[in-house]
């Protein structure tokens, strides 16, 4: 018996209009990612990596075709429903961390928990655990401006996993980091995939980053070309 | 952390801007608090009674009426009690220190207006113990620093004594408090028999009769009937409620209510424009962060509520400071200006704070709510 894929795109079509000109991105994209997978998506600029990630995040929707994650049809949901779904099922790690500058590390991590029915104490405990997990214990009160890029990205990862989502979407998570910090972040993502069984989809330009994934998908001209991870 | 904490931290991301906005709000509500206190106070007409009728000469307020009208007014069905008064305006020590003395028949005044003025049987009895005795209102006593037992001299502007002098000497027999803070107590109550006997002209005349209608009798209808009694006499009357009288009196100078509305309206419209403009820019500065919040799953409505909370915080803090200063101002101004920062003023101000806070936050909140995440991320 084959297991249903956790993420499934079938015949997805997506394009944009810029100045009256139609620009197709995907004409009939298919994709299946099982639960617990760690997939790197690579491809040249303009190949549709960000569009794919936006659709997986429910930020954008396909023009046609189906997109389901964990048996939920995102393409059929309205914006409010996708927003709620995102809050409970997905964490996003950004290239530029995207921490709110007026909040300290603990408060940034706590943000997604404001949508959960948790007491202040429960939230505090969970935030503490996440910061501990990413190696930032004792830095709860530090503001983003006081942290290095690597530390900020670790706060970003803690924020992405604090609500215990099944899916982690990473948009160039090492793109703004030096090699050492990048390796630490990749090691952490591998740990989250292996130990906590998070399904991870990571868009990257960095071949070394892609090697942390279980497999790499190459996106070119709106189609995937799969190769085994080396 | 709560969403309110988040709004609070957002509001303080540029402290100088936030403080300046709060100062704007505080100044507007200081103006509102003081002007509303003026209207609610004894200088305004809002505290005046609509039930007590003043009967004055139809020829004008400065014209006297014969005291003989008293018996006909008292005999009119619907009149519960009637008193009368002669007004002596003058000054104490220096000409700009103007005070008013109402010469009355004490028992009649007690029956008509005693409750509103805060007169007690003991005060009326004290007044009755000497012809030159007076009762002084609390506001006037505090402003002049007068005490019970003190002797005072009022130099009348117009009412001369039989001996040719203008100085009227009185002994303070007591101080009346007024029923509430809004009651005008910036005057003195003297005995009519003393003033009437000592004045050179205008004997047995009064400046006004004061009438309290019986329960269930409409003041307006009774006023019309009283005026009808004297319509064909040598001294026709014009009767009005105390409130009507005071409003008409204030309108001699200007429509105070309209002026106050215009001043506060201008202040609030200016405030609205300043805060809306500032908040629109404040939100435009951070679409990227709003995009981040949306990707975290924070709904459009919560984003809207977040921005509205920011403006509400600015208004609540600024408004509270402004109203506290207005309250302080009414206390420091003392009784002379008759400002009363009543609970009603506070409730109205609180409602305006909320309404303006929401109104000014609405446009930036809708902008924040509507910005698509993809567009928000492009602004980085």
UniProtKB/TrEMBL annotation, chain A:
InterPro entries: AAA+_ATPase (IPR003593), ABC_transporter-like_ATP-bd (IPR003439), ABC_transporter-like_CS (IPR017871), ABC_transpr_LolD-like (IPR015854), MacB-like_ATP-bd (IPR017911), P-loop_NTPase (IPR027417). Pfam families: ABC_tran. The keyword Disulfide bond does not apply. The keyword tRNA-binding does not apply. Keywords: ATP-binding, Cell inner membrane, Cell membrane, Membrane, Nucleotide-binding, Translocase, Transport. It comes from the Bacteria. One of its GO terms (cellular component) is plasma membrane. One of its GO terms (molecular function) is ATP hydrolysis activity. Signal peptide: none annotated. Residues 7-229 form the ABC transporter domain. Belongs to the ABC transporter superfamily. Macrolide exporter (TC 3.A.1.122) family. This is Putative ABC transport system ATP-binding protein.
TrEMBL record, chain B:
It is found in: Cell membrane. One of its GO terms (cellular component) is plasma membrane. Its main location: membrane. Keywords: Cell membrane, Membrane, Transmembrane, Transmembrane helix. The chain crosses the membrane at residues 256-283, 303-325, 345-366. It is a multi-pass membrane protein. It holds the Pfam family MacB_PCD. Residues 267-373 form the ABC3 transporter permease C-terminal domain. This is Putative ABC transport system permease protein. The lineage of its organism: Bacteria, Pseudomonadati, Pseudomonadota, Alphaproteobacteria, Hyphomicrobiales.
């Amino acid at each position: 018996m084959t297991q249903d894929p956790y993420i499934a795109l079938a015949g997805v079509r997506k394009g944009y209009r810029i100045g009256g000109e139609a620009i197709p991105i995907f004409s009939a994209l298919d994709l299946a990612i099982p639960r617990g997978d760690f997939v790197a998506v690579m491809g040249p600029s303009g190949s549709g990596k960000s569009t794919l990630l936006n659709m997986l995040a429910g930020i954008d929707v396909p023009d046609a075709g189906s997109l389901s994650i964990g048996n939920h049809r995102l393409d059929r949901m309205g914006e409010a429903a996708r927003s709620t779904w995102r809050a409970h099922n997905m964490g996003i790690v950004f290239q530029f961390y995207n921490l709110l500058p007026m909040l300290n590390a603990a408060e940034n991590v706590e943000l997604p928990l404001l949508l959960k029915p948790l007491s202040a104490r429960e939230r505090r405990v969970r935030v503490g655990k996440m910061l501990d997990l990413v190696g930032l214990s004792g830095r709860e009160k530090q503001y983003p401006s006081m942290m290095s890029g690597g530390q900020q990205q670790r706060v970003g990862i803690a924020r992405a996993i604090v609500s215990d989502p099944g899916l982690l979407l990473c948009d160039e998570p090492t793109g703004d980091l030096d090699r050492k910090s990048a390796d630490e972040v990749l090691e952490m993502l591998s740990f989250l995939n292996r130990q906590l069984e998070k399904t991870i989809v990571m868009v990257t330009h960095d071949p070394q980053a892609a090697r942390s994934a279980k497999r790499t998908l190459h996106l070119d001209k709106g189609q995937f070309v799969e190769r085994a991870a080396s | 952390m709560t969403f309110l904490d988040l709004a609070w931290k957002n509001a303080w991301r540029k402290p100088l801007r936030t403080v300046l906005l709060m100062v704007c709000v505080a100044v507007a509500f200081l103006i509102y608090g003081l002007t509303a206190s003026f209207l609610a106070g004894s200088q305004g007409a809002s505290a005046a009674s609509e039930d007590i009728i003043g009967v004055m000469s139809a020829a004008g307020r400065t014209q006297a009426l014969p005291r003989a009208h008293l018996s006909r007014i008292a005999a009119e069905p619907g009149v519960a009690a009637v008193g009368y008064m002669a007004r002596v305006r003058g000054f104490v020590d220096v000409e700009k220190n103007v005070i008013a003395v109402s010469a009355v028949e004490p028992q009649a005044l007690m029956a008509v207006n005693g409750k509103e003025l805060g007169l007690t049987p003991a005060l009326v009895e004290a007044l009755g113990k000497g012809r030159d005795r007076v009762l002084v209102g609390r506001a006037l006593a505090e402003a002049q620093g007068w005490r019970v037992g003190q002797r005072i001299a009022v130099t009348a502007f117009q009412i001369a004594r039989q001996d040719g002098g203008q100085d009227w000497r009185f002994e303070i027999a007591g101080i009346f408090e007024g029923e509430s803070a809004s009651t005008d107590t910036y005057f003195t109550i003297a005995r009519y028999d003393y003033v009437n006997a000592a004045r050179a002209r205008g004997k047995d005349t009064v400046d006004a009769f004061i009438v309290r209608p019986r329960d269930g009798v409409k003041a307006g209808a009774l006023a019309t009937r009283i005026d009808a009694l004297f319509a064909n006499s040598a001294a026709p009357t014009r009767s009005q409620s105390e409130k009507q009288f005071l409003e008409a009196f204030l309108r001699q100078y200007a429509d105070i209510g309209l002026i106050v509305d215009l001043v506060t309206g201008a202040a609030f419209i200016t405030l609205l424009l300043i805060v809306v403009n500032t908040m629109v820019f404040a939100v435009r500065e951070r679409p990227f962060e709003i995009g981040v919040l949306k990707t975290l799953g924070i709904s459009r409505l919560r984003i809207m509520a977040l921005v509205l909370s920011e403006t509400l915080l600015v208004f609540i803090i600024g408004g509270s400071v402004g109203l506290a200063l207005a309250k302080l101002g009414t206390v420091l101004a003392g009784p002379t200006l008759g400002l009363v920062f009543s609970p009603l003023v506070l409730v109205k101000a609180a409602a305006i704070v909320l309404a303006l806070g929401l109104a000014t936050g609405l446009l930036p909140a809708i902008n924040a709510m509507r910005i698509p995440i993809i567009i928000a991320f492009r602004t980085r």
